[in-house]
Amino acid sequence: MKLKSILISLLISVFTLTGCTSSPEKSGDQPKDTNLEEKQPSSSKEENKDSSQAKAPVKGLRGMVVHIVDGDTIDVKLTNGKNERVRMTLVDTPETKHPRLGVQPFGQEASEFTSKNLIAREVTLEMDAEERDQYGRLLAYIWVGDKLYNQILIDEGLARVAVYPPNTKYVDQFREAEKKARKAKKGIWSIEDYADEDGFNSEGENTSSTGSSVKAASAGSSTGNETSDDTETNTSCSGKIKGNANSKIYHVPGGSFYESTTDNIVWFCSEKEAEKAGYRASKR
């Protein structure tokens, strides 16, 4: 009888132990659920990472484009009702109705492209270090939604990169775009020795992408060129060393860009004088 009681006690102990060990097996499924839950925040982090890569809204003045002066200059009516003439920063398109140069190759194409893509469009004007030029025009990067129009002109081969410090925020980005356009021989780069960092060589082959000769201004053109740039200083040295006040580049008589450089001219009597004033020689 005593032995029977002992056996019963042992059996009860075995069943009790079995019940205890089965409990962790059930709870053993719990970490798996926890792991799935832990992956959830990881997925959220990926989504947050993608969101951070999206371009943040550009800060600047907002308005509507109401007039196209030429490929790189527009008139914008700001939200405060004020009209501003805006010169696009870091880009330069060929002239369209210059009093001396007339229509340069791809100048008309650039103007028409800008008119087609910007007229009556809402834009954001992003400023750089210097907000206005010496003529009072706003200097800006033109944003249409999340698209940077200044670069689009370069992408299309309708503008060259024109660096006027201190406004250089996107200069590296623009130079990369210019390299691609040049390699593909788009627009201005389809004409040999026509465009480079010093400007446009009017002595180049004056044939546009449409195959038409563009040696003179087109009659009845709806776009006009900004002539307020046509200023000269230190004219006592006129006809000698010609410097451009914006680019800080000087040209010598007979140089490729001597005749075509017509904006913001500063005359020097010698190259030494120009270099002393902070100018460098044109590469051609």
Automatic annotation (TrEMBL):
<feature type="region of interest" description="Disordered">
    <location>
        <begin position="199"/>
        <end position="245"/>
    </location>
</feature>
<dbReference type="Pfam" id="PF00565">
    <property type="entry name" value="SNase"/>
</dbReference>
<keyword id="KW-0255">Endonuclease</keyword>
<feature type="compositionally biased region" description="Low complexity">
    <location>
        <begin position="201"/>
        <end position="224"/>
    </location>
</feature>
<dbReference type="InterPro" id="IPR016071">
    <property type="entry name" value="Staphylococal_nuclease_OB-fold"/>
</dbReference>
<feature type="signal peptide">
    <location>
        <begin position="1"/>
        <end position="19"/>
    </location>
</feature>
<dbReference type="InterPro" id="IPR035451">
    <property type="entry name" value="Ada-like_dom_sf"/>
</dbReference>
<feature type="domain" description="TNase-like">
    <location>
        <begin position="59"/>
        <end position="191"/>
    </location>
</feature>
<dbReference type="GO" id="GO:0004519">
    <property type="term" value="F:endonuclease activity"/>
</dbReference>
<dbReference type="InterPro" id="IPR002071">
    <property type="entry name" value="Thermonucl_AS"/>
</dbReference>
<dbReference type="GO" id="GO:0016787">
    <property type="term" value="F:hydrolase activity"/>
</dbReference>
<protein>
    <submittedName>
        <fullName>Thermonuclease</fullName>
    </submittedName>
</protein>
<keyword id="KW-0732">Signal</keyword>
<dbReference type="InterPro" id="IPR035437">
    <property type="entry name" value="SNase_OB-fold_sf"/>
</dbReference>
<feature type="compositionally biased region" description="Basic and acidic residues">
    <location>
        <begin position="26"/>
        <end position="52"/>
    </location>
</feature>
<dbReference type="GO" id="GO:0003676">
    <property type="term" value="F:nucleic acid binding"/>
</dbReference>
<feature type="region of interest" description="Disordered">
    <location>
        <begin position="21"/>
        <end position="57"/>
    </location>
</feature>
<keyword id="KW-0540">Nuclease</keyword>
<keyword id="KW-0378">Hydrolase</keyword>
